[in-house]
Amino acid sequence: MLGRGLMPFSIGNDICQISRIHKIIASKARHRFVHRILTPEERQQPRAVRILECILDQEPEASTAVASKTPSCDNAQHHAQQQTQGSPALRKAAQYMAGRFAAKEAVMKAHPRSPRLTWDQIVISTAPADPIAEHELLQQGGNPSISTGPPQALIRGNDVYDDMIAPISISHDGDYATAVCLGYRQVPKAQ
Which residues are within 8 A (CB) of 88 and not within 5 positions of it... i.e. 6 or more apart? Predict the structure, then answer.
């Protein structure tokens, strides 16, 4: 039973400057940053693979080792120069990562608990598409395996809490990404 005036849900929000993320993913720290923020599941999502290929196509150690041995490395060096100069692909990757960063921060704020949620306990994905929308997508020649539903956060449970799904909203405007999460007050598992 909730106390007087307490609601069974909470809201978390966050804002992230895209140019700040752009600096990180244009640097040598890009792989570490992406692997810290996104889970392996998230990095394997079709949209993430497509958007992040410009920064994850080569591991940093591999690119320097290969650079001195193969002529195709000229392409890798040119690719790195394009990244630091602000290619459209890198800007899109920065926008995507800023949105994911803000979304995970919003989830953490909407679910204050002890121990605190960590980056790898939150998986941002797309909710299953509406069956009617999926049918219309098929009619138009689209691919129904690509989910078209709203974003959601899977919050992985632990010894105290069960897994749960929370709705989120991610928006981008100018140099900012923002996210909001509707959190549900969790009841600890019965011991």
Answer: none
